[in-house]
Amino acid sequence: MKTPFKVKVNSTSEFEVSSEDISALDSVKTTNTSFHLLKDNTSYKAKITETNFNKKEYTVLINNNTYVVNIENNLDQLIKSLGFEIGASKKVNEIKAPMPGLILDVMVKPGDEVKVDTPLLILEAMKMENSILSPRDGVIKSVSGNKGNTVDKGELLIEFE
């Protein structure tokens, strides 16, 4: 079997599919995200409704039933067996001042829920206003700086829970 892919459906069913299995599939692409499949003389309409390329996760609608499909190739499986996660990054728990400056505005307070890219505060440095945005979704644990305070480079500004 060349190039086995590990496929997990709805986090319950798991099986391997080879590139030969994929080549032998009787399918016709009807649109960019839709396909018509024949398997054992049964017709299936498949549509990819959501994709997450970092997680290699696809939500597929087949004959009006929704399935979440994860696909891993050999490299993905090797990386996982070594204890690493694909597309994983370090979770940021604190925001420190990237440079010395003056806090012009603080837009959050402890307990606020924020999403990625939510403006947290504005720091003036070298006569430029720098918006500090949230690097992740989360809840604000503490805000160290106040409007009008000066801060040094590396000084803690905001902590996440």
Automatic annotation (TrEMBL):
<dbReference type="InterPro" id="IPR011053">
    <property type="entry name" value="Single_hybrid_motif"/>
</dbReference>
<dbReference type="InterPro" id="IPR000089">
    <property type="entry name" value="Biotin_lipoyl"/>
</dbReference>
<dbReference type="InterPro" id="IPR050709">
    <property type="entry name" value="Biotin_Carboxyl_Carrier/Decarb"/>
</dbReference>
<keyword id="KW-0092">Biotin</keyword>
<dbReference type="Pfam" id="PF00364">
    <property type="entry name" value="Biotin_lipoyl"/>
</dbReference>
<protein>
    <submittedName>
        <fullName>Acetyl-CoA carboxylase biotin carboxyl carrier protein subunit</fullName>
    </submittedName>
</protein>
<dbReference type="InterPro" id="IPR001882">
    <property type="entry name" value="Biotin_BS"/>
</dbReference>
<feature type="domain" description="Lipoyl-binding">
    <location>
        <begin position="83"/>
        <end position="161"/>
    </location>
</feature>
